[in-house]
Specification:
By secondary structure, this protein is α/β, with parallel strands linked by helices. The protein has one domain (about 5-260): Vaccinia Virus protein VP39 (Rossmann fold, 3-Layer(aba) Sandwich). The protein has helices at about 10-15, 50-65, 70-80, 110-120, 140-145, 155-170, 205-210, 255-260; strands at about 5-10, 100-105, 105-110, 130, 150-155, 175-180, 190-195, 215-225, 230-235, 240-250. Strands 1-10-9-8-7-4-5-6 form an eight-stranded mixed beta sheet. A two-stranded antiparallel sheet has the order 2-3. It is globular.
Length: about 260
Amino acid sequence: MRSRKGRIARAALVAALGGLAVSIGARPRGDDHGAVVELGPGPPLAEDAAERARRLRMVDEQIEAQGITDPVVLAAMRAVPRHRFMPEAERPLAYEDCALPIGNGQTISQPLIVALMTALIEPRPTMRVLEVGTGSGYQAAVLACCVGEVETIERIPELGRRAEVLLGALGYRNVHVRIGDGFDGWPDRAPFDAIVLTAAPGRRVPRPLLDQLRPGGRIVAPVGRGVQELVVIRKTERGLVTRVVAPVRFVPMTGKAEADR
């Protein structure tokens, strides 16, 4: 059975957001379909027109229609070539509403969850973001179009090296890949304005990640064993404030997180 990293039910998302996503970090950057949208460092795309048409349709039907309307996030989703981040055999399904295997027991998240997690950090061009779980590199590429710097950690060396090469080839100069255990974060690069986890650590977010979050920052993460919830944790002067967004299904975080469950 294929594991499904980043699965979220559409009905659950709509119910959980209740239309709130329409105001998340909204700030126009060009026209509705990205033709003159100014993104962060990213790829000068030369691709088949059919692939681009499929991607635009994906955003219109799977993402914007479900309440994600931040223009910057939508522009990033329209720009990043998802098909490049998966094995050749899976590319016919690249712009379908599903997670897909990328090898090593890992998957690339469905487009809706990638867009949602990006929107939930309320991205700004000055932000530095830590991603825990590089995987294919797709989430990092989307983040790179929306923020200033992306630091991403992958525990599986093969995946990390592959993502690093691909991100570089596509022109994402503001993404830095590290091979290591995401449980520990990246202390040398901390603090971070936001942290995104693409694997579920268990019942709680690892303490090192909370410590590396800047005051006022946000962590977006799936938490739980078996049944999981996507949460937003905000660091305030009075402590941590957690908001549950929707039920999700992610692959479990491995390494030190396994002992912390």
